[in-house]
Design goal:
This protein is mainly α. The protein folds into two domains: 322 residues, no CATH class; 83 residues, no CATH class. Helices cover 54% and strands 5% of the residues. The protein contains 18 helices and five strands. The protein has a five-stranded mixed beta sheet with strand order 2-1-3-5-4, with no helix packed on it. Helix 7 runs parallel beside helix 9. The radius of gyration is 23 Å and the shape is globular.
């Protein structure tokens, strides 16, 4: 019976990996990926520099950027699909660490249970189809928990902190030594040299700090419940239910300390409504919940695990089926993105190849009101970092915006009703 259960759990994991793979093989649609993860990677490659990108659009480029450097290599070798596949692999590696930890503390079946609980959340499934960085940092933090040597823990925490800033605090909770600072220092030193601000993009007039502290008492008070019941978080209540039942089981003091510390760090951390900031916490909750299955006797609780896994598979299969036509070459990438991108929300794509055919390498386009710049494949400056000394041959304006008055009355050269862009000629000799 135990062997059959293990086989079922393994099968569910394989199905989830295949489902996630379909999403990872398609073109990138993720907002933050197109906003800054991939865009900064692409600009780093073009400029042969990892200096922070000035202005109030890509200020995140001043934060630890190991993930973006990894993605820059992926873009150099292929296209945005390789960064997506890289994030998928880090999700699988994170799941493997969850398995090893639960197996070490409880049993093999518990390991498979914990892995299913973690990996089959709609949150992990969605992240596995994007080039975000949350699964990268989660893997390194789980690795820090799992390895025994102090130097291995230190390296893992340094790499996690070089990927995402909040890992510095979580790493401190794991080892009681601030190893994570070493992951941040190289980027902070670059920021100091380039901007004169060691803490860039903090202490700048960007206003993004308000994202970290907002929405008042009820927002913070309700945050733990919303993690499991708010669809935006993409987690669901089953992990919470199983975790509550598992509290009756003996909890290792070290594990309890880690769990409590990480919970407080997440709860008091960035004031965002997205569950990905709690990803490491979810992995710990899944591990503890798996203690219910040390003896593998409760078929009703096992049913909840299977239901959770099936929900993850079916949910992501429904979401990822849109990628199949383009993966199977029944639809071009151009057609897919023209259909799927949110142009009225700041996306851009050259859906009819006009820019490819008409913008020369010697041209330079000044871009207004386009938020997500990754798919711009011609020389450009965005309004947020444009300089007065630059000569721009064209002015590109995104959806729901007009040509800024400072440019006068320029001739309209091109417009597209689908992508909702307008291009003006700024150089009459062109």
């Amino acid at each position: 019976m135990k062997i059959k259960i293990n086989h079922l759990l393994l099968l569910l994991l394989i199905l989830q990996v295949i489902t996630n793979l379909i999403g990872a093989l398609g073109p990138e649609l993720g907002f933050d990926s197109l906003w800054y993860h991939l865009t900064t990677s692409k600009i780093f490659l073009e400029r042969h520099s990892i200096n922070p990108i000035p202005g109030n659009l890509l200020y995140w480029s001043g934060l630890p950027r190991l993930g973006e450097l990894i993605y820059a290599l992926g873009l150099y070798l292929w296209d945005e699909r390789l960064p997506k596949l890289t994030h998928l692999v880090f999700g699988i590696l994170s799941a493997h660490q969850v398995y090893l930890l639960a197996k070490k503390y409880f049993s093999k079946t518990s390991g498979l249970i914990a892995t299913n609980l973690f990996y089959s959340t709609l949150l992990v499934g969605w992240l596995s189809t994007t080039s975000y960085i949350d699964l990268i940092v989660t893997f390194f933090l789980l690795l820090a928990l799992n390895v025994k040597k102090w130097w291995a823990k230190a390296i893992a925490i340094i790499l996690a902190s070089a990927t995402k800033l909040h890992a510095v605090v979580i790493g401190l909770a794991i080892t009681l030594v601030p190893w994570g600072i070493l992951g941040v220092l190289p980027f902070a030193a670059i920021n100091q040299k380039v901007t004169g601000n060691f803490f860039y993009p903090f202490l700048e007039n960007f206003g993004f700090e308000s994202e970290w502290l907002y929405n008042g008492f009820w927002f913070w008070f309700s945050r733990p419940l919303r993690l499991f019941f708010d669809p935006i978080f993409r987690v669901g209540p089953i992990i919470l239910i199983l975790f509550i039942f598992s509290i009756k089981k003996p909890i290792n003091k070290k594990n309890l300390y880690t769990l409590t510390s990480v919970f407080l760090i997440w709860w008091l951390g960035p004031g965002t409504g997205f569950g990905r900031f709690a990803l490491f916490l979810l992995s710990l909750l899944s591990i503890q919940a798996s203690s219910l299955f040390i003896k593998n006797k409760n078929k009703y609780l096992l049913f909840l695990v299977v239901a959770h896994s099936l929900l993850g598979i079916v949910g992501r299969a429904w979401a990822n089926q849109k990628y199949l036509p383009v993966i199977l070459h029944k639809q071009t990438k151009q057609q897919f993105l023209a259909q799927r991108l949110k142009f009225d929300f700041g996306d851009f794509y050259d859906i009819d190849n006009w820019f490819k055919d008409n913008i020369k390498p010697s041209d330079k386009v000044l871009v207004y009101n386009i938020h997500n710049l990754f798919y711009l494949d011609f020389p450009f400056d965005h309004e947020s970092w444009a300089t007065k000394n630059s000569n721009y041959t064209h002015i590109l304006v995104g959806a729901n915006a007009s040509l800024p008055k400072e440019h006068g009355n320029l001739p309209l050269l091109y417009q597209n009703d689908t992508s909702q862009v307008k291009l003006y000629l700024n150089d009459q000799s062109n």
